[in-house]
Specification:
Elements: E1 5-10, H1 17-29, E2 36-41, H2 47-53, E3 58-62, H3 79-84, E4 89-92, H4 95-99, H5 105-117, E5 121-126, H6 130-134, H7 138-150, E6 159-163, H8 177-194, H9 197-202, E7 204-208, H10 216-220, E8 227-230, H11 239-243
Helix pairs in contact: 5-7, 7-8
Length: about 250
């Protein structure tokens, strides 16, 4: 089964209306491969702005949300609010949410369940830290993270799994195409065993961690790499080159 290539841009806490407006103009005017699904993760305060300015062919994602529709949760946003802005995706479990803000596997699972129940697509992030890779427990860590997500998913067609080795995010170190393929393949095997063969074959597993115009083509050629979650490079014109990695 062919899986539609998926490229997410995670703008993180970057940009203002001027710089993001320029980036959006570049994207709207760029030649992009029509066979690629593209979603831009905007800061929550700019979700409305991004959705109103970006061409309809591009999706928009929130970078986080909470696990209930509304209430006394100062500083949080809900899937209902995200959808009200015309936005259809959310990034959950990013390593910065896990390791900078202390989000637990359990909370990320609860958020995933609520986002999916609310009709959002979820880009669910998993990945090991450097000491975990060096300790030889990469699989143990990513399988445990994946299990908590899987336990909260009923409809896998709305989920993209993003494998992001934490040691490669924003460090300039990229997992080699072979390292990425190895983990993606093992994740697919885990899904086959623990969810179903159909889900394992259809779900998109994308790679994140210092993806650039220079590294994207070889990564994209790996059998089980179905796209990217791009950080810093998604704020630059080279994002177009990354979208077109398979072209």
């Amino acid at each position: 089964m062919s899986r539609k290539f998926f490229v997410g841009g995670n703008w993180k806490m970057n940009g203002d209306k001027k710089s993001l407006g320029e980036l959006i103009q570049t994207m709207n005017g760029g030649k992009v491969d029509p066979n690629v699904e593209v979603v831009c993760g905007a800061p929550s305060i700019y979700l409305d702005f991004a959705r109103s300015k970006l061409d309809a062919k591009f999706g928009v994602a929130a970078q986080n949300c909470y696990k209930v529709p509304k209430g006394a949760f100062t500083g949080e946003i809900s899937p209902a609010m995200i959808k009200d802005c015309g936005v259809n995706w959310v990034i959950l479990g990013h390593s910065e949410r896990r390791h900078v803000f202390g989000e637990s596997d359990e909370l990320i699972g609860q958020k995933t369940a609520h986002a999916l129940e609310s009709g959002l697509g979820v880009i669910a992030c998993i990945g090991e830290k450097l000491d975990e890779r060096e300790g030889g427990i990469t699989e143990k860590v990513v399988f445990a993270q994946t299990k908590v997500i899987a336990d909260n998913v009923k409809d896998w067609s709305k989920v993209v799994l993003a494998y992001e080795p934490v040691w490669a995010i924003g460090t300039g170190k990229t997992a080699s195409p072979q390292q990425a393929q190895e983990v993606h393949e093992k994740l697919r095997e885990w899904l086959k065993t623990n969810v179903s063969e159909a889900v394992a074959n259809s779900v998109r597993i994308i790679y994140g961690g210092s993806v650039t115009g220079g590294t994207c083509k070889e990564l994209a050629s790996q059998k089980d790499v179905d796209g990217f979650l791009v950080g810093g490079a998604s704020l630059k014109p080279e994002f177009i080159d990354i979208i077109n990695a398979k072209a």
